Amino acid sequence: MKKFKTGGITFLQEIGSPDQRSVSKPDTFVIVKTDAMIDFYRHLTQYSPKTIMEIGMYEGGSLVWYDKLYKPSKLVGLDLRRKPIVALEEYRADKPHIATYYGRYQDKEGTRMAARQNFPDGIDLVVDDASHLYEQTKMTFKMLFPMVRAGGHYVIENWTWSHRPAYQNTDSIWADLPAMSNLVLELVIMASQSPVIESIHVDRGLVCVRKGRGVFKEEMFDLSGCLRGKSLTVL
Ligand SMILES: C[S@@+](CC[C@H](N)C(=O)[O-])C[C@H]1O[C@@H](n2cnc3c(N)ncnc32)[C@H](O)[C@@H]1O
After folding, report:
1. Rounded to whole angstroms, how far apart are CA atoms 227 and 229?
2. What residues does ligand 1 touch, defined as CB less than 6 Å away?
3. Which GO terms describe its biological process (predicted)?
4. Residues in the chain where the model's pLDDT stays below 50
């Protein structure tokens, strides 16, 4: 298993099956990120994100890593898990700039409320590493992208699951659920229509939308006016 150190904390990169992962400890946190993802987030340091919201904390490793990497003024994590992450709660005990929300589904109103309460002046970086499902991820984007500042970033991890060999059988997990690639396609087409999306970076691990000028509106997901009367294939 790979590991690295940042700011005195050891991070164990555990990207395998959840039942084989460790539990975070005060000086050693589990982080579910590949080398390429780690490089990507290091690359974002050039934008110095100071207000950060992460959806999907798992064992808290990514949240602690963002704290060490970006030294944010406000850092918020949200997860549906009900049981607090003991090591993370210990870590943030003397750090009032970090807030955690447990027992919250990403696509529910509580996500928007947590963002509004903590980021009255907008968000520099959102990381959605939660359900990886199309509907939930899209709803979360609709709620949080309007709060991202111009020049800020919105990252969605693990959008490629439906194209991997393990998901090709009709009896595989999520076989009946729409692929996340639908959302990526929608965002790419939306970028052709409005400067509110300045650019989109896509790689095998994640997609990152950079906010541009103007106001994002949910209706922008209605792409019917720019598809020449054709419809998008649902993957
Ligand atoms: C891949 S893990 C997050 C890994 C973590 N960001 C890291 O890099 O170490 C996904 C997390 O999302 C949470 N999650 C899954 N579905 C969710 C949903 N619908 N709403 C909120 N959290 C969800 C899970 O409980 C889990 O903790």
Report:
1. 5
2. 31-33, 55-58, 61-62, 79-81, 105-106, 129-131, 136
3. methylation
4. none
